[in-house]
Amino acid sequence: MRLPACRVILLVLLFALSAGIPRASAQFDTASVVGTVKDASGASVPDAKVTLTNTQNGVSVVRTTSSDGNYEFVNVRPGIYLVSAEKQGFSIALMDNVQVQVAARLRVDMQMAIGQVTEKVEVTATAPLVETDTSQRSQVISGEQMRELALNGREYSSLALLSTGVRQSALNKSNQGTPREGAFNVNGLRSTFNNFLIDGVDNNAYGTSNQGFSNQVMQPPPDAVSEFRVVTNNQSAEYGRAAGATVNVAYRSGTNQIHGDAWEFFRDTKLNATTYFRPADGSKPTLRRNQYGATLGGPLVKNKAFFFGDFEGFRQDRTTTAFSTLPTTVQNSGILSVDVRDPRTGVIYPAGTQIPMTAFARKVLGGLPAPNVAGAANNYSIAQLFTNHTDKAGGKVDMQISPTLSLFGRYGWRDLNTNDEAPIPLPSGGGGNGNIYTRNKQLVLGTTLIPTQQSVLEVRFGWSNTEGGKNPPALGASDNFGISGLPTDARIAGGLPSQAISGYSGFGRQATNPQWQFPTVWNPKINYSWLAGRQSLKAGYEFQHINVEVQDVNPLYGLDS
Fold first, then answer.
1. Three-class SS of residue 444?
2. Which of 74, 83, 271, 497 could be a cystine partner for 95, CB 3.0 to 4.6 Å?
3. Structural element, H or E, at residue 364
4. pLDDT per position as a tens digit, 296-308
């Protein structure tokens, strides 16, 4: 027997309410602070005024305890807080240095002593309190850890490896190409099963070939991240999507004081040892890397409006010894060491006899460099140059319009350009990835409204756009080697189509080049939380629209084998 959908939903809601719904976990990247106020005898203190104050920006929120002495603050941003409780006939109870972490549900119980309101009983929390009101398995990586631990490449996401059940993906430790940032396996699943959030909205890279070498749209530097939480099991239903982990990132915000920092990390060829495989000229492979940037944050209006901005640039030139197998000078002239039969005419050309060549063959062979290493195999070597020029930046503004209304907005961008030198030069070479480009843009807007002391309405909107792809070195070249019928589209045409000849390295372009993926993501969300007696309830809605322009059909320009 099938029940109507509305009846099923009603039954589920009634069951949940009667069973006592577990207290709602934190919204988006924010946290909840809950607790009970009692007197020295252990009796609950109703109608006490509880104040939660951010010690960095001075923003305060007030709640009144219920008849059971309970209170709850939702939508609490990560940071250091002061919690106070006061009521006539009692001394003021203070809990200082309360560290609220991203997406946490933190319990802070208070005890009030009989006395005057002018008296204070202060307790200092010397370490982050244990989350006793949530069953999810997770780990928080603080901003201090990110900025103080050594990070090769300065990828904040690599610290997710400190969590239980997380291992580095093979895609993140490539020795041949550029490692993929944010690629790690959780609970044995692929890295694409993870879910990245920044400021509560979607931050996943949806490029089908993942050009840009990252699982994220925006990859803020460690200095721009307040903290992040890696949830690996039993996560809240509001996260969704992830069979692996949810990486919930809180972007840094400005405070009442102006703070900034700057950095420069570098590596240089002179600091490196010489590798065993040297280029033909005997030189040491090049490695020059400069990673630099700065952050700045502070108040626009004290206790009301704050700003934070960051920038990081990355410049790298590196060479590796590459070997190719090319025809020798004698072979280039059409003289081979074995008998050759022309399949078209049946004529056999004895070994050592010059074979007649077509104009196309002469042109391709004439465009190849001469071997520079002795032997018939791996007889051509270069110091292959790989360059990476990347810039990224972000800016955020937070505003406390009133005690019941707050707003924030953030915009970020990233521009990546890498160039891989072809192992065989043009005009008859030109293989490899060539130019890889990625242009990321992301906009996030959010507002929080507190209609009553028992309810909170949160709205977030996220938009991101990525243009990522690769182009062959010969793109746009006018010479088509006399081949008719090739594509003339300016985004595709140019150079020698891929030539695969047994026993030799491939000539011409890479067969899978060009390709591109341009995903655009729209991600509005809304959450409504309210208190009903001892229960903390929440309902929400998320919409996600992903539009991807894809060109992954290959070979677009032909493949001769």
1. strand
2. 83
3. helix 359-366
4. 999 999 999 999 9
